[in-house]
Amino acid sequence: MPRHLVIQLARFGDLLQSGRLIHSLLARGETHVCVDRSLAALAGLIYPQAIVHPLLAHGTSGGGQSGLLDANRRSLALLAKTDFDAVYNLNHSGLNRALARLFDPAVVCGHAVRDGQNLRARWLDLAFRWTRHRRSAPLNLVDVWASLLADPLPPEACNPVAVPGGRGLGIVLAGRESRRSLPPEVLAPCTHALFEALDGPDVHVFGSEAERPLSRRLIRHLPAKVIERTRDHVGRTSWADLHEGLTGLDLVFSPDTGVMHLAACVGTPVQAVFLSSAWAWETGPYGLGHRVWQADAACAPCLETAPCLAGGESAPQCLAPFRSSGFLNALAGRRPLPEDAGIWPLDSRLDALGLDWIKPSSFMDEHGRQRLAQRALLAEYRGRDDLNSDDNPPDGSILGEIAHTFYQEADWMLPDPLP
Known about the structure:
This protein is an alpha/beta fold. The protein contains 17 helices and 14 strands.
């Protein structure tokens, strides 16, 4: 039986976005997953058939670099003596590169080190190229990683179709980047609107221990009738509790967070707000039955590590539309979202490449033609002829224009240095 290893040492959301790749490998043979030790229990819940190897990848060991080595020595020794047919190294951090050195470069896919040289698979080179123009990004991160395989499982096999489960409304407070989240004063009216749309369900609030002050601020801004039905789980859930708490909800309302991806993973419908550096075509909730409210500011998506130049850190320009009555009316189901709201209503769909997003044609997207053309080129590159573009085929002239900048001669002429 083939034996595979996936090295995913990034954060919570990245582990879940590795799902299509991991499920594809599980269908083929024995699959190991190397994760930060803080995520080992979650990995066991989401991928129960996988063998999980925890490492100390984030935080401190108390002893600097030597302490980090000591903390990981047992796991590293076990990995080094295991004979893997293929190793999928998904990130290019220093620890990922060091871990890849344990294995023969001939079996490492993604990011590898050979003769002291850092190598990256040509497919990932292509992905890095299109991230220079993020508004026309053609492929979700789930599908980027899954496509390290020539024939991953169909996208519909990754997460279940999302359907309401009858257990109420979930509210997710914030992600690691506060600029991508709604402050409590903005989140509270959204919560009230969804409470009305769902006829007054129980409301479950989720977040980390560090977000308890945000939870208190949110509850202070809610109407009494909503407070009466609110259950505050912030800082009180284990991974198992969170998994169970998200399962069977009618809806989860969230920024771009790991909790959002976990909700999609268990088949709970997600309505997500994407603003600042969050972009639906890159990291939207995976599967059918989800909606993203995508901010359409001219500067979006921005670079989260750079200061906000359009409104400032506390009031970025892309936050304003989420305060509007037009958006709140749309959330509550009273009226459609106005076309000049500064937000796109995007609904998820799947095609031959993976996850895509569709919106009403009346909402203008100047980069939509480029995105469609890039998806068509990627389908050709991967030998797929069943992309969902029959109703809106890409313009031939723009295909040629993008191909000249999208590809390099080595993409077609030379062998890939990595599997």
